[in-house]
Specification:
The complex is a heterodimer of chains A (459) and B (469). Chain A is α+β, with helices and mostly antiparallel strands. Chain A has ten helices and 27 strands. Chain A folds into three domains: 221 residues, Thrombin, subunit H; 99 residues, Roll (Pdz3 Domain), CATH 2.30.42.10; 104 residues, Pdz3 Domain, CATH 2.30.42.10. Chain A is flat. In chain B, the strands form five sheets. In chain B, strands 24, 25, 26, 27, 28, 29 and 30 form a seven-stranded antiparallel β-sheet that branches. Chain B has a six-stranded antiparallel beta barrel with strand order 10-11-12-15-14-13. Chain B has three domains: 221 residues, Thrombin, subunit H (Beta Barrel), CATH 2.40.10; 95 residues, PDZ domain (Pdz3 Domain, Roll); 101 residues, Pdz3 Domain. The chains are: A alpha+beta (459), B alpha+beta (469). The interface between A and B is medium-sized, with 32 and 29 residues.
Chain lengths: 459, 469
């Protein structure tokens, strides 16, 4: 047993395919000055009760640009949690440097977040430069750099791992071969050539608010090409940024498996069956119908037979550019057809939607975005704003309001957008009535809530 | 009231636990020893118990349940009481609903078969008829209008399957309103709340005053609480029992409105009426142009007023008691106007849709209820709803899912469960290799392809030569 291990080791030495102690130490000295700790407080809203709790947390943060851009894993920002009081520290003991930091908008295609460090003077910090190499081979050794926990003084540490698996779809994803301690998550990863090829990642499941690429539960290597664009062009500070860069067609599809092809007498070459056409959408305008089979999207053949292929198609559409006119080749009732469609802008998702917290009643509301409309199966005639949080002890909580309630009118003012809600609140606040009637939708039914504001306390 | 549970599920579950429970209970009794209450009240309690106990029935129905994509039969346990010498028994709908056979054990421990005369899920009342010729002891029904909180009451029944049990307490509240909006289980009555111990298995048993009259039917408990039990007032039960014995069911009108107490809109006590909070689309109320926010002040000229939630059930009952298929005048206040609107009532229909198992494909489906039609945003009552899918079945491998609404089979629109069943049987008999379903799941529709031959292939070819040991 030991002999064979030694032998293996000898072979690797011969090919240079391993880490020497000296190489690791060199990398450690290069990288650790840029690996810091993000300390922050979290406000967590229980989606069921609307109760808000707070706790402190920390995460590994990596300086990725000398002027004070820090990257951390995206777990800091998930549904129902909001980080605040963010402080970033670099170095140890008397050497420690401390910065207040602002969270930037979370990218929605990779599970990382960026922080902008605040400083009066221009910063010139040690930072990590990534290699755009995307050619890691299966079983390639890699080294991870992280920090141990609070009780071990956040001391810097090294761990070796290998690329255990490579997933091809919907994007190239590298899996690591062993469990990774929390302190390494978000830390830099080098290959045997000494290149910093990425960071240790963990994807969120969709239930946790993950994105379309969610593959949770296994430590991953996020290759640099996934996030380098955000280092080059950091996201904006505001949450209000729209998804204008993304194109949208407005169909839900399922793969044309061989069984479906057999049933419809189509060639078993794959494709995407249009299962739902969202209305209104560019797809409706173009005349796509449920049951159409997409076999070519603007010159790219669609040969989907697996569920994961659907995501590739979504990505293809998203990146095609809004406003572009595309040619979609379909099979309808077995006959080939060509359809021209002008792609739209992907509607705002709940994550991008603005929130508004009123000053008196304890309600935080958000617009009903298309994704929410689909998730809750709301027809277009349901207009209103959706309650996200109910402040504990507030008049809204006393009136039994809960997250998920859709407010359709507030104090007899019809409400269909967050701005209208804000205006309605302003008008009511100006009048200071003893009670405010809310007409709302709870699940499939409608009903009334009566709020009794405490004017003397609040105003 | 989300923590409030009917005992329904528990009853079924308890069947398995019953034996263990019984053993535990014996131990507990031994440990507790003997406590004696004093004097006159004890005699009064014993007297009251003696007037009811002979008519007490321990009920063991074999219920049909649809679970995990299969039709199954399970034995449940509940309580009941004989209300006439010829053997009518009052119990809960959740005890005897969907049962194929009902065994009753009488107070003399003899077992008698019973037939289900009828059930009413809206009030949770069910009526059995014992199949016996001999005259039977029966209870005296009291008047649940003449009860008071603080009054001593007894609960009799089979808690955790332990037959002939008596527990003692008081009426805690005479008219507890249990929110009907979510569970939709008791829209037409308030409840008697008692601290007399009520446990799973007590369902359907009598709540008795010290005169030995039945004033309520024990039906619910607040799980996780100590001695917070609920009984259906006997006056509510009487009316339902009469209707069931007469017609086999309770016929009710439906207009498609939901009501809220005036306090939901205003604290002003001078404002009379009841708030219309919701109008079902495709309903008589919607036809009549009633709107949410209208304040209903009279029905057929009789004023209605509900300042508090407890005032709602009688008004709902008044509306549901309107003659079916006839016009009624709903007087509503809308802003400064008062309007008389004519509403043509409809039959409220069945409380829940019937279900059926489709064994060859390994799933169960049911008729859609109006509520499900509305939740699914269907334009009309079409299709069938998948209630369960068997692991490893054809439907499961085609990724049919619980909650899916099947809209089409092989491009033919599904009208209802009977129609779907016919198409299914034809497809199974024809051994069609592939059957296409179009299903709705939430806001989305998708195609589901059933491949029948995968399980039709026998493990051993049947007509091979040679022999099989």
């Amino acid at each position: 047993m030991w002999n064979s291990l030694l032998l293996l080791s000898a072979v690797l030495t011969a090919t240079g395919d391993f880490f020497s102690q000296a190489a690791l130490e060199r990398a450690y000295n290069d990288l650790t000055p840029a690996i810091g700790i993000v300390r922050y407080s979290l406000e967590i809203t229980d989606p069921a009760s609307g109760e808000v709790s707070r706790r402190d947390n920390n995460a590994l943060g990596l300086v990725v640009a000398p002027d004070g851009l820090v990257m951390a894993l995206g777990h800091m920002v998930i549904e129902n949690t909001q980080p605040f009081n963010i402080v970033f520290t670099l170095g140890h003991g008397s050497e420690e440097r401390r910065f207040d930091a602002t969270l930037l908008k979370k990218p929605d295609d990779v599970n990382v977040v960026f922080l902008r460090l605040k400083s009066d003077a221009p910063l010139d910090l040690p930072y990590v430069r990534f290699s755009k190499a995307n050619d890691l081979a299966l079983a390639a050794p890699v080294a991870l750099f992280g920090r141990l926990g609070d009780t071990l003084d956040f001391v810097h540490a090294i761990q070796e791992a290998r690329i255990a698996a490579i997933l091809e779809k919907p994007r190239t994803t590298y899996c690591l071969d062993q469990n990774v301690r929390f302190g390494y998550v978000g830390g830099p990863v080098i290959d045997t050539a000494g290149r910093v090829v990425g960071v240790v990642g963990f994807d969120l499941s969709r239930a946790e608010g993950g994105d379309v690429y969610s593959r949770s539960g296994h430590p991953l290597l996020y290759q640099a090409e996934l996030f380098q664009k955000y280092i080059d062009n950091p996201p904006s500070l505001t949450e209000e940024q729209s998804a204008e860069d993304y194109a949208w067609l407005g169909v839900f599809t399922q793969p044309l498996t061989d069984d479906f092809a057999e049933y419809w007498g189509l060639p078993k070459e794959g494709g995407l069956i249009v299962s739902t056409v969202v209305a209104p959408s560019p797809a409706v305008d173009a005349g796509l119908l449920p049951g159409d089979v997409i076999i070519d999207f603007d010159g790219t053949p669609i040969r989907s037979k697996l569920d994961s292929d659907v995501l590739s198609f979504t990505k293809l559409v998203r990146e095609a550019g809004p406003g572009r006119e595309v040619t979609i080749r379909i099979l309808r009732d077995g006959q080939p057809r060509e359809i021209r469609a002008r792609l739209g802008v992907r509607p705002r998702t709940a994550r991008d939607a603005g929130e508004y917290e009123d000053p008196v009643f304890g309600l935080t509301v958000r617009e009903i975005t298309t994704d929410i409309r689909i998730a809750l199966n709301l027809s277009e005639d349901v207009q209103g704003v959706i309650v996200r949080r109910v402040r504990s002890g507030s008049p809204a909580q006393l009136a039994n309001m809960r997250p998920g309630v859709i407010i359709m009118s507030f104090g007899d003012y019809p409400v269909s957008t967050v701005d209208e809600f804000r205006e309605a609140v302003d008008k009511v606040v100006a009048r200071k009535p003893a009670e405010v009637s809310i007409f709302a939708r709870v699940g499939p039914a409608t009903g009334f809530f009566r709020l009794e504001p405490r004017w003397q306390n609040n105003q | 009231m989300r923590t409030l549970n009917t005992e329904k599920r528990q009853v079924v579950r308890n069947v398995r636990k019953a034996a263990a429970c019984a053993a535990l209970a014996l131990l507990a009794v031994a440990a507790a020893g003997c406590v004696t209450a004093g004097g006159g009240s004890e005699r009064a309690v014993i007297r009251a118990k003696n007037r009811v106990a002979p008519a007490l029935v321990h009920i063991r129905p074999v219920k049909e349940v649809y679970a995990r994509g299969k039709r199954e039969e399970v034995v449940a346990i509940g309580s009941g009481f004989i209300i006439s010498p010829d053997g009518y028994v009052c119990t809960n709908e959740h005890v005897i609903g969907q049962s194929r056979a009902v065994a009753c054990i009488l107070s003399d421990r003899n077992e008698v078969e019973a037939e289900v005369v009828g059930v009413d899920p809206y009030t949770d009342i069910g009526v059995l008829k014992l199949k016996t010729e001999r005259p039977l002891p029966y209870v005296t029904l009291g008047d649940s209008e003449k009860i008071e909180s603080g009054q001593t009451v007894l609960a009799l029944g089979s808690p955790h399957g332990l037959a002939r049990s008596v527990s003692l307490g008081i009426i805690s509240v005479t008219d507890r309103h249990l929110d009907a909006a979510e569970a939709r289980t008791s829209p037409f009555n308030n409840w008697i709340q008692t601290d007399a111990a009520i446990n799973p298995g007590n369902s359907g048993g009598p709540l008795v005053n010290l005169r030995g009259e039945v004033i309520g039917v024990n039906a619910r408990m607040l799980r996780g609480a100590e001695n917070v039990g609920f009984a259906i007032p006997i006056n509510v039960a009487k009316e339902v029992i009469d209707a069931i014995i007469r017609d086999g069911r309770v016929r009710r009108s439906w207009v498609g409105i939901s009501l809220q107490e005036m306090m939901a809109k205003t604290d002003d006590p001078t404002q009379r009426g009841v708030v219309i909070s919701d109008i079902d689309p495709l309903s008589p109320a919607s036809e009549a142009a009633l709107r949410p926010g209208d304040v209903l002040v009279a029905v057929n000229g009789t004023p209605v007023d509900a300042r508090f939630p407890e005032d709602l059930p009688p008004i709902r009952k008044r509306i549901t008691d309107l003659p079916i298929g006839e016009k009624a005048v709903f007087t509503v206040r809308r802003g400064d106007e008062t309007l008389d609107l004519e509403v043509l009532t409809e039959d409220a229909g069945e409380f829940r849709g019937t279900e059926r198992e489709f064994p060859d494909w390994g799933f169960t489906a049911g008729e859609l209820t109006l509520d499900q039609v509305r939740r699914a945003q269907l334009p009309a009552r079409v299709g069938v709803i998948v209630s369960g899918v068997q692991v490893g079945g054809i439907a499961a491998s085609a990724r049919l899912d619980q909650g899916d609404i099947i809209l089409e089979m092989d491009n033919e629109a599904i009208e209802n469960l009977a129609h779907f069943t016919r198409l299914y049987q034809a497809a199974v008999e024809a051994r069609k290799g592939l059957v296409l379903l179009r299903v709705k799941r939430g806001a989305l529709t998708r195609f589901v392809l059933i491949r029948q031959e995968s399980t039709a292939t026998p493990l051993l070819p049947e007509d091979t030569d040679g022999h099989v040991e």
